[in-house]
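It is worth pausing here to work through a concrete case rather than discussing structure prediction in the abstract. The textbook approach is simple: state the sequence, then state the predicted structure, then interpret. We follow exactly that order.
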Amino acid sequence: MSEDVKLGGLAWHLAVLSLTAIGGGVVLVAPDVHHYVSVQNHWMSDDQFAAMYALAQAAPGPNLLFVTLVGWMIKGWLGAVVVTMAAILPSSCLVLALGTVINRHGGADGRWTGALRDALAPLAAGMLAGAAWTFLSVAGAGWRGMVLALAAAGAAYATKLNPLWLIALGALAGAVGLV
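Step two, the predicted structure:
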């Protein structure tokens, strides 16, 4: 655990990020949380950050669990609780408020809801691409890893192939040394 962690600053940072995480909690990773805890404040190494994220993704539950592990790694149980609440509460309150407004003004099939969904879709895709770029960079994937990631993204977009097949193919490529 790091003694120089300013937990209030980290909590505020995550709270603001949670309000901008269009596309899900995973986009919090790229590049901001990694940059904040690993590059800017040196509270954990790139390898530690990647390990925390991988462990959270392997565990059942929401994708956002990685922030709990990051908080635990840098400040123990207090860090885990504080950063989890900071990452979840602001966006949850925003969604509840927007849900109430949407239900009062046309429901989920209303004109404004469709326009908002259409406007946010490219933003979510861009933020997800940024998250992928951060992980590929931190992992030192190289050009082969980048090509494989782009091919998997293209296959996921263009086909109805189950993503588990793409994950299995990526694992196979890694196992045989292609990436």
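Step three, interpretation. DSSP finds seven helices and no strands in the chain. The first helix runs from residue 7 to 20.
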